[in-house]
Amino acid sequence: MKIVVGTREEIAKKAAARYEKLLNERPNAVLGFATGSTPLDLYGELINLNKAGRLSFAEVTSFNLDEYVGLDGTHDQSYRYFMNENLFNHVDIRKECTFVPSGLDVSDEKAAQYDEAIKAAGGIDVQLLGIGNNGHIGFNEPNTPFGSITHVVELTQNTREVNSRFFASIDEVPTHAVTMGIKTVMNAKSIILVALGKAKAPIIRETVLGEVTPKVPASVLQLHPEVEIYLDYEAASLL
Ligand code: GLP
Description:
Blueprint: E1 2-6, H1 8-25, E2 30-33, H2 40-51, E3 61-64, E4 66-68, H3 79-86, E5 98-99, H4 108-120, E6 126-129, E7 151-154, H5 157-163, E8 176-179, H6 182-186, E9 190-195, H7 201-209, E10 227-232
Parallel strand pairs: 1-10, 2-3, 2-6, 3-5, 6-9, 9-10
Antiparallel strand pairs: 4-8, 7-8
This protein binds 2-amino-2-deoxy-6-O-phosphono-alpha-D-glucopyranose.
């Protein structure tokens, strides 16, 4: 694991530089994107680099980690909407080459086809991850098997409470989601995890220094050969 620590601004710039290098070497890269508040600074940097002509998404294919069940792409809390608003609408990516699991008409069988689509695209070159306070990656909650592929999950009460800040009330937070599995994430050739703020410090410590266990889904990253973890000083404060 390579760990990069800096201010919020510095780590967003450093992570963006990683994408600049990759996309200049491999313009048709397959990128795995994430949602949540954490990647917003990075997406802002990617938009700036795109506008400045320093990187292009014109040949990129992308796959997002997850989506809420029951929200279609026009719902302002759907992850499809988030990606359009915070990245895709502002860069030269071909929308038809951006994939987010569908939150409608879901089944495990349909979800598993997402893994097939990723394979057919050649596999993910760089998977971006945030991390939940309980160590979830995507929506893989504690005790998700490491062998899991894209599947339907029931969200924990903790995750629904944490994410309720984006909804009018907790009752509006979906109870289920579709998420890439742990194996789907681990199949990526390289992984970038970003964590910001003091609240993430304990789980970052467990992820990096703790036992590798399904109880802490992100701890599986210790087993991946190409992981970079970008932390602000607060998130890194317990390392
Ligand atoms: C959600 C997403 C995760 C994300 C997590 C942390 O549950 N499914 O992919 O990593 O929230 O969000 P934030 O970055 O806002 O802390």
